[in-house]
Design a protein that fits this description.
There is one protein chain. This protein has 375 residues and is of the alpha+beta class. It has 2 domains: 168 residues, 3-Layer(aba) Sandwich (Aminopeptidase); 191 residues, Gcn5-related N-acetyltransferase (GNAT) (Aminopeptidase), CATH 3.40.630.30. Strands 1, 2, 3, 4, 5, 6, 7, 8, 9, 10, 11, 12 and 13 form a 13-stranded mixed β-sheet that branches. The longest helix has 17 residues.
Length: 375
């Protein structure tokens, strides 16, 4: 192809359609790619429906070659995060490109120039386009299987192109595989039983009838337990509320667990969801007119889960709370008929959580990389 590459800002309905539908062209022959719901992607680009886009300046670009879309990139700043970190941080997100480096070069040149104009000093990413746990990081290991719900998937050359441009590793995030066709490890079972007997904590499931109360509990736990990570701070009430609204649509109470002490204080919680990617692969991005019937049919056939959040407060640490959350999630998932689970994603520098994931029987099988670059 020629290098007649033109970068345009997403402004019109047509621009948004090209931005959102580009992956269908890039991954058309890749059996491991899972098409996202088009409706969800349109909502992601809508500031009225995506809180992150209201937290700071942002811009989305499409690369064209002779009028044909060949790449895309989103960039922005989270002013709430920057205030907390006292830095001028920025991010890239939703990066996609055909296998032709000049496309990436032109996109990133344009995106970083725009970020500099907004006063950014450092760019990291790819970050979540919604400040959630979706599409965070580039897949760098584990290309031999489809991604589990909300996780990234991309060709191997994406990492090569960003590194060629000048991005360097900030840190990796790990995904662990659990074989739920087997009983949880005996040592895990014994350890949890001893911890419960010694510390007297109790396990309960999500109460869908009192989601506002559950939101408050989650917020309290997150405020106490979230470490000083370079790319995250405890979410706002608005962000928690948005995630809880999603939970209401997708969650199974048996897979969203809370651990409380004898005084009723929450020591930790874990959220696992069915792997709806097993459904999305059959929908080609569309729920209507017939996708909804496919959704209802294939939803009953889901065989896996993803635990994407596990937090323990300081009073609950070193008391078996994390192990108990893993154990009871696996027990409940097995009872519901699931045969595999994924625990993800865990920051590589979160030593305690990585140890807990491995002790629970997890096998490290995928890695995702967050990059950074000074501006």
């Amino acid at each position: 192809m020629s290098d007649n590459i033109e970068i345009k800002v997403v402004q019109t309905r047509r621009d948004r359609r090209y931005f959102i539908e580009l992956p269908w062209m890039i991954y058309q022959n890749d059996p491991n790619w899972i098409p996202p719901l088009l409706m969800d992607m349109y909502n992601t680009l809508d500031p009225d429906k995506n809180a992150l886009l209201r937290l700071g300046p942002n811009c989305f670009f499409v690369a064209y070659n002779r009028g044909i879309p060949v790449g895309r990139l989103g960039v922005g700043m989270d002013c709430r995060l920057n205030e907390a970190k006292q830095q001028n941080l920025s991010y890239i997100t939703l990066y996609e490109s055909i296998d032709h480096y000049p496309v990436t070069e032109a996109l990133v040149d344009t995106g970083l120039k725009w970020l500099k104009s907004q006063g950014a000093d450092l760019v990291t990413g790819p970050q979540s386009p919604s400040n959630g746990d979706d599409y965070r990081g580039l897949l760098i290991e584990g290309f031999d299987s489809p991604p589990v719900l909300l996780n990234s998937y991309n060709p191997p050359y994406y990492a090569d192109y960003l590194e060629r441009y000048g991005f360097r590793k900030q840190f990796d995030r790990f995904a662990y595989y659990y074989d739920l066709s087997q009983e949880p490890l005996e040592r895990l079972c014994r350890g949890v039983a001893l911890a419960q007997k010694r510390y007297g904590f109790k396990v309960r499931m999500l109460d869908l009838k009192n989601l506002h109360r559950e939101m408050i509990v989650m917020k309290q736990v997150l405020d106490q337990s979230m470490p000083d990570w370079p790319d995250m701070i405890p979410p706002s009430e608005e962000e928690i509320s948005a995630e809880v609204a999603k939970l209401k649509q997708l969650a199974i109470p048996d897979l969203v667990l809370f651990i409380e002490n004898n005084d009723g204080d929450c020591l930790g919680f874990a959220v696992a969801l069915p792997d709806y990617n097993q459904v999305l692969t059959h929908l080609n991005g569309r729920l209507f007119p017939v996708g909804i019937f496919k959704y209802l049919w294939y939803k009953r056939k889901i065989t896996g889960t993803r635990m994407f959040a596990l937090f323990v407060t300081p009073p609950g640490r070193r008391k078996g709370v994390s192990a108990a959350l893993y154990y009871y999630t696996m027990i409940n998932a097995r009872r519901l008929g699931y045969t595999y689970g994924e625990g993800s994603t865990v920051h590589e520098f979160n030593s305690r959580m990585n140890i807990d994931a491995q002790k629970a029987g997890g096998k490290l099988y995928k890695k995702y990389r967050i990059y950074q670059m000074s501006l």
